Amino acid sequence: MNEKECSARGTPILLPEGVCSLADSQITKKALACAVKALVCQKGVDKVSVGDITKECGMGRQSFYYHFQDKFELLEWVYQQEAFSGLSSDVTLQNLPQKMEQMLTIMEQERKFYITAIKAYPNLFSDCLGKILKQLFLQIIERLDSTHSVDVERREFGADFYAMGCCAVIVQWAQKGMRLPAEKLAQELYILAKDSERAAARMINEPK
Questions:
Q1: Residue 189, class by beta-carbon neighbours within 10 Å (0-12 exposed, 13-18 middle, 19+ buried)?
Q2: What would the pLDDT profile of 8-35 be if each residue is shown by its tens digit?
Q3: pLDDT (tens digit per residue) in 196-207
Q4: 187 neighbors 169 (Cβ within 8 angstroms)
Q5: Rounded to an integer, what distance in angstroms lies between the CA atom of residue 207 and that of residue 56?
């Protein structure tokens, strides 16, 4: 199999020319992610093209479009695989501070990329994160409401409300340059999550 190197961020990554296996596919996606992050840091999201990304890691455009529709779908993949990876499973209200701190620390470590990308397209980031957080808040409500006294519409509204609140706080944190330490922000988000638990309890105990 012929191979090329991706030099994004100075780290060589061997790339297969054809997509032959799941392992090859992951290597290709990671190389594209490596390239887009380097380019976003250099010149911003809007000035980065698919051609720039594939040139950065020595791939053809066909390889890019086999995996992603456009650069925005690639950015979503980066968020999900890196920043949001710890939120994908085994998240509870009890371990939420640690999970949030893990996410925010990853963002701090890649500060220039996340600040630049979020400033350019805040909704792309918040939509991705919002879906994950909504599921967490739905689980909080469902755990408290074992008798299913709260209808689905109210559950959805409550989960959306708190998920959007958390997303807004994180987006604003990035837009302002991540001045607050990740640990401190994680604790603030945990307080917001605890508020959602109390709000859910009030909904359940409201007179019918």
A1: buried
A2: 444 444 444 443 456 678 899 999 999 9
A3: 777 666 666 665
A4: no
A5: 61
